Amino acid sequence: QEQVVESGGGLVEAGGSLRLSCVASPRSLSIADMAWCRQAPGKEREFVARINWISGSTNYADDVKGRFTITKDNAKNTLFLHMKSLKPEDATLFYCDATALIGREIWGQGTQFTVSS
Predict the structure, then answer these.
(1) If we measure between CA atoms, which residue out of 51, 54, 38 comes closest to residue 93?
(2) What backbone phi and psi angles, to 5 degrees, belong to 114?
(3) 38: how many CB neighbours lie within 10 A of its CB?
(4) 3-state secondary structure string, the chain?
(5) Is 32 exposed, middle or buried (0-12, 13-18, 19+ CB in 10 A)?
(6) What is the pLDDT along the chain (117 residues), one digit of tens a residue?
């Protein structure tokens, strides 16, 4: 069964750092790109960052540029989101999304973190 599973949420102080992880399976899944999105209560899901699984090229939402870095470990089918200088308004539910080479999208269940001020 194809799936992505996020982890790494929790509690962090304002100004602190946190790393989210996302593992895609099965290992044989052919991935085109992976992305992180976020969704605050009552709002639409929005793009945060994306990485091309082959070239490694990345793009980011404007409000996270310079603070968030998306990386990958192809050997482990794992995606990361390194976040620094966190603000209380960054805290919400983050989702991982894998796009397979044939175009199918696979979403995870999400991971939540809180930023204390």
Answers:
(1) 38
(2) -125, 140
(3) 20
(4) CCEEEEECCCEEECCCCEEEEEEEECCCCCEEEEEEEEECCCCCCEEEEEEECCCCCEEECHHHCCCEEEEEEHHHCEEEEEECCCCHHHCCEEEEEEEECCCCEEECCCEECEEEC
(5) middle
(6) 899 999 998 999 999 999 999 999 998 999 999 999 999 999 999 999 999 999 999 999 999 999 999 999 999 999 999 999 999 999 999 999 999 988 899 999 999 999 998
